[in-house]
Design goal:
By secondary structure, the protein is an alpha/beta fold. It has one domain: Rossmann fold (3-Layer(aba) Sandwich). It has a 10-stranded mixed beta sheet, sandwiched between helices. A two-stranded antiparallel sheet has the order 8-9. Strand 11 and strand 12 form a beta hairpin.
Length: 277
């Protein structure tokens, strides 16, 4: 992580007749244009909450400018067919909002990250805004299964993009092995693929090698890597719940965290490997 001083701004951007909010963290002393990381929060969170949830560990990651957008009524309109939230009911165009945010900030390169519903938003952008991003990170989210995979574009529109996925095997809300995702039986988000199936599907779309190379990088963490010009990586964290490893203590209902690593450090390492000059 980069420990440089930062400037934090709370900004608004009009889109679809709404004042959309985002938090912008800019490294001091580094002239622009910057690389930009857009970090999408999870369900019932906000831009401020995801910063606290990750203990600020993504702020100025590797000298990047970081934008934390707010979803409408605490959700983003993601890629799943089953999404019983206001962002879907109101027809919120979060793909267009993301494009507008990028136009406003005029970055050098764009990187995406998202947790839970925000991870689903990243998946939507990979399909519905092909190659908008130079690379992407998905925390605790997997592709919808069957008809629940419902981006606007067909899969044939997908363009190769390096992707890192990070998922705990004991996630109570987004099951690692696949199944039904959601907060509870009344607030289901429909059937989803498992993390390995999702990574393999993205590797196929990226034209990466069909068989991953695996290595134990920590006692509880295995990295699977599908090699290619646009690689896909999956970090499987044994026993971890619906969390992003950030060194903080969070609600026990989300499951157990890991102390083996800080997610932001591994994300920075991944971005450095796949960044083009």
């Amino acid at each position: 992580m980069n420990a440089r001083e930062t400037t934090v701004e709370h900004r608004r951007l009009e889109h679809q007749g709404r004042q959309r909010k985002y938090v912008l963290v800019t490294p001091q002393g580094a002239p622009g244009p910057h690389d930009l990381l857009i970090f999408f929060h999870g369900s019932l969170q906000s831009g401020n909450v995801i910063r606290r949830f990750t203990a600020g560990t993504f702020d100025a990651l590797d000298g990047m400018q970081v934008a934390y957008p707010y979803g409408v009524e605490q959700h983003f309109n993601d890629a799943r067919a089953t999404l019983p939230v206001a962002a879907r009911e109101l027809g919120i165009d979060d793909v267009g909002f993301t494009r507008a945010l990028i136009r406003e900030l005029a970055p050098r390169r764009v990187f995406l990250a998202g947790f839970s519903n925000g991870g689903q938003m990243v998946l939507r952008l990979l399909f519905d805004a092909p190659r908008l991003a130079d690379a992407a990170v998905v925390f605790a989210s997997t592709l919808g299964a069957g008809s629940n995979h419902a981006p606007t574009n067909p899969d044939s529109a997908f363009l190769p993009t390096p992707v890192l996925l990070m998922h705990g095997t004991a996630d109570p809300l987004a099951p690692y092995e696949g199944g039904t995702a959601g907060l509870d039986a009344q607030r289901t988000r429909g059937p989803v693929l498992g993390a390995m199936e999702t990574a393999a599907r993205l590797a196929e779309l990226n034209g990466a090698h069909p068989e991953p190379v695996s290595e134990q990088i920590f006692g509880d963490t295995t990295r699977f890597r599908w090699e290619g010009p646009a690689p896909v990586e999956l970090l499987r964290v044994a026993g971890m719940g619906h969390l992003i490893p950030s060194g903080n203590v969070l609600d026990a209902r989300l499951g157990r965290n890991t102390n083996s690593f800080i997610a932001a450090d591994l994300v920075a390492e991944f971005f450095r490997r796949v960044r083009t000059p």
